[in-house]
Design brief:
By secondary structure, the protein is an all-alpha fold. The chain has 10 helices and no strands. It has 2 domains: about 5-135, Serine Threonine Protein Phosphatase 5, Tetratricopeptide repeat, CATH 1.25.40; about 155-218. About 75% of the residues lie in helices and about 0% in strands.
Length: about 220
C-alpha cells in the first residue's frame, strides 16, 4: 500500500469539508482547527513509521489554506509547524530542506503579526534553531533559539508549549534547575479549548522529561 496516498485519503474528507465552509469561518482559528486536530492525531495516535508521510499530506492541505488566506499569519504558523514535524519525523540531513521551508513560513508569519496564536511562531522558530544542526550543515543557532524562546514566553508566559520546549532546550544545555521550573510550569498551563488531545499528549511528554531529569539529579 502506498502510505502517502493512504494518508492523503485519510485526511481529505474532513479537510475538504473545512475548505467548503471556510467562507463561513468567523475566525482564523476556525480555519486552522482541522489542521490542528489532524496534527494531534498524527503525533499522538499514529505509529512513528507512518508519521512522516501523514505530515507530508497534511502540509499540502495547510498550504491550500495559506494560499486562500494570504494575509493571515495563523495558517502560515500551522504550515510551519506541520513542516517542522515532518522534518522531525524524517530525521537526518534529508529533513533539512523541510526545516528550511518551515523557517520561511514562520518568518513570514512573524512579519504579519508576531503575536498571532500567542506567539507560536516564536516558539516554533526557537525549537527549529535549537534542534537543527549549526553551520556549515544547517542554520541551527542556540543564541537565536534562546532569544526566540524568551520572546515567546514574554507573549505567553503560562503556555504549555513555550514552557515545555524551553524546558527541553534548557535540559539539553545542562541547565537542569531552570529546565525544571519551566517544565513544572508547563504542567500547570491552562487547558486550550478544542485541543484536548494535543494538551494530553504534551503533558505526557512533560512528565516523561521531568521524571528523567529528577532521576538524574537525585
Amino acid at each position: 500500500m502506498n502510505v502517502a496516498r493512504f494518508a492523503g485519503k485519510l485526511f481529505r474528507l474532513p479537510l475538504l469539508l473545512a475548505f467548503a465552509s471556510a467562507a463561513l469561518a468567523a475566525t482564523p482559528e476556525e480555519l486552522i482547527r482541522p489542521i490542528q486536530e489532524q496534527w494531534a492525531e498524527i503525533k499522538y495516535r499514529q505509529p512513528e513509521k507512518q508519521q512522516a508521510d501523514s505530515y507530508g499530506a497534511l502540509a499540502l492541505q495547510a498550504r491550500k489554506i495559506v494560499e486562500g488566506n494570504p494575509k493571515m499569519p495563523e495558517p502560515l504558523i500551522w504550515e510551519g509547524i506541520v513542516l517542522s514535524s515532518e522534518a522531525g519525523a524524517k530525521g537526518g540531513l534529508g529533513a533539512l530542506s523541510l526545516a528550511k521551508e518551515a523557517r520561511q513560513r514562520l518568518d513570514e508569519a512573524l512579519k504579519l503579526n508576531d503575536k498571532a496564536l500567542n506567539g507560536s511562531a516564536y516558539t516554533s522558530l526557537a525549537t527549529l534553531y535549537a534542534k537543527v544542526p549549526g553551520w556549515p550543515v544547517g542554520f541551527g543557532d542556540k543564541e537565536r533559539a534562546e532569544e526566540y524562546f524568551r520572546k515567546a514566553l514574554a507573549i505567553n508566559p503560562d503556555g504549555i508549549d513555550p514552557n515545555f520546549f524551553y524546558g527541553e532546550y534548557l535540559a539539553d544545555r545542562g541547565r537542569t534547575a531552570d529546565a525544571l521550573v519551566h517544565l513544572e510550569k508547563a504542567l500547570k498551563a491552562p487547558p486550550r479549548p478544542g485541543r484536548e488531545l494535543a494538551d494530553s499528549g504534551r503533558r505526557q511528554e512533560v512528565q516523561v522529561l521531568l521524571a528523567k531529569l529528577r532521576k538524574e539529579n537525585r
